[in-house]
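Notebook entry, structure prediction.
Reason for the run: the old model in the group folder had no record of what sequence produced it. Starting over properly, with the input documented here first.
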Amino acid sequence: MPSLLKVNVCIILMLALLLTGCAPVIFGGAVAGAGVAALYDRRDAQTLFDDQQIQFAAAAALKQDPRIKSQADAISVTSYHRTVLLTGQIEAEAVANRAVKRITHLAKVKRVINQLTFGAPLDLTRQAEDLYIISRAKFALTQIGLPDFNATRVKIVASDGVVYLLGLVRQKEGDAAIEKVRYVPGVRRVVNLFEYQ
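New structure, fully documented this time:
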């Protein structure tokens, strides 16, 4: 029975990766997949590059710190418009504070939003469920009928059923996105981290 559970988790993970747009990275079309998203992104090319660099630098900084290293894999780092969002579940508040401090001092980081929670790291089943929520939320955003709105402009992060929405949007776009995502099955709460134009 445990092996059946592992197979189901693997299937859910693969489906979620395909639906969230991570498939191009896995199957070799990373450049094409990233190019399509960048075409509609309201961030300029330098900011897109900075966000990628910040994520790599933050992940490296967490793994190099002896006080964080053992829990670094439980911390998810997302950078959008040079704002860093930390999500995941870790064992101690001291680790969260240390992670925020390390990342705050990285080059080009404007601010750090600490949404880490405390407890045992999320298991594979919960992580797969979060990926599935992201895929359903992305699909829900494609149903928004506002002029000039493109679903790829919204960055969606999910952790333990809590969904974080990031992006450079207009007020109506942000409101519509929040409303759509709020009703996606499995979403416990939506956190608005949009920057409005």
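Summary: Residues 42-121 form a domain with the Histidine-containing Protein; Chain: A; fold (CATH 3.30.1340.30).
The old model has been moved to the deprecated folder.
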